[in-house]
Amino acid sequence: MIVANPDALSLILKARDDQIRSSFDYVASVLEVDAPKDLGPVASAVFADVVSQLNAGDGAAAQTNFESIGSVTQNLEKNARIFWGDDTLPDQVWGQLHRLFDTDAAMPFNPQPPTQDQAAVFLDRVDRVRHILTDFCPDALAEFDLIVELMIMGAPEDDHPNNQFDGCSTFFCPGAILVNAAEKRTIAHSAEMILHEASHVLLFAIAGSDGLTANDPNALYTSPLRPDPRPIEGIFHAAFVTTRVHWVMQHLVAQPEFPDDLRDDFTFERDRLDTASLASLQILNDHCEPTAKGAEVLTAMQTYWAGRL
Description:
The protein is an alpha/beta fold and about 300 residues long. The protein has helices spanning about 5-30, 40-55, 60-70, 90-100, 115-135, 140-145, 185-205, 230-255, 260-285, 290-305, and strands at about 80-85, 150-155, 165-170, 175-180, 220, 230.
């Protein structure tokens, strides 16, 4: 769960996809139509709208949306990299994706596509990260490719500090990450960012619809990763993703043949993650009321750090 293990991770993702398939099959039976074969992130994003329309009593709109899934996802390849708003997907689907990523009414989120130059620099960094993982931590790369089926490259709408972002993901779009391709990053920070977002997607799969904590969702706690107080579920995510990425960074810099010109930057990221992980974990130890799934993950994190302290 913390240490890279592609075989074990495949079982987690299969369990998630089996649940998604069951949900699709149920709605297909309600609408008396065939269920779509695609279970990818865009299919799930459209499906979220289908469920909302059914709950609102609009069966006709729900059926139209549901039956469109096969056609709107036909141009997507596995592990695709696309620009926010590009013509790979219909405008309607981009609207559905926007609603899923824009979750804070007090702080509207309106990503834009990056420029071609920004995307080229970003993709060069990603490819260099992939080469590093291939050489020094292939299991982490194998996990990333299993988790991230779709990488959407975006950019902030303007320079206002409130509109800046690094990357994000959502429970309702399993397998997709939205990344800020306009941000200038080192190779080490690029590695941290994409692995960080992949770990969020993995934790959504582990928790499923059960959640990780039984705490009051309105209670807020100081977050070591963000300036604003966060619900305990968000701090749980912070602890998990920083712990997982810490393992990768530590594994990389421990290799004697790891490139000397990259070692300092990757060591910096490792040490930063060390601090953030332990601070997040302390908040969980003090306040978290874990669900059964949450207890499994919390124990895995505690065991990992107990072996390092």
